[in-house]
Design brief:
- The chain has about 130 residues and is of the alpha/beta class.
- The chain is built from 5 helices and 5 strands.
């Protein structure tokens, strides 16, 4: 059984759409409206057992995606992370963090495939890398 995906975004509409897309294909997700909330969950034993991948926005008010991923990598170097941003130039900021970067607008099929791939390869960070520009 696949683990859950943690969706992190300060925009409730984005969280809802992403959760709906994943629910349609049988992927269970949890929501966090900010990076600090997400980090607390990911540090917990319950989070470590249930979360198999993280999808995060790049621009968030309390802590941006780069800071979030840096903090996450300080205690979990293996969990697959997918960063979604409307700023294509933001991709370079994540080069050292073994993430998959999706530029907005992202097609639903690409989002779903990327998340499923991350869950299937959980614990194998070498398989999740910064995607090439299309």
């Amino acid at each position: 059984m696949l683990k859950q995906v943690l969706l992190v975004d300060d925009d409730q509409a984005q969280l809802s759409v992403r959760q709906l897309l994943l629910n349609r294909v049988g992927v269970v997700s949890q929501l966090a409206s900010g990076a600090r909330t997400a980090l607390a969950l990911l540090r917990s034993s319950a989070g470590q057992r249930s979360i198999g991948a993280v999808v995060t926005d790049h621009l968030m008010p309390d802590m941006d995606g780069v800071e979030f991923v840096r903090e996450l990598r300080s205690f979990d170097a293996e969990i697959p992370v997918i960063v979604i941003s409307g700023l294509p130039d933001a991709r370079e900021a994540y080069n050292d963090f073994h993430v998959h970067f999706l530029a907005k607008p992202c097609e639903p099929e690409e989002f779903i495939a990327t998340v499923k791939n991350a869950l299937l390869n959980e614990g194998q960070p070498a398989n999740i890398s910064v995607a090439a520009s299309r």
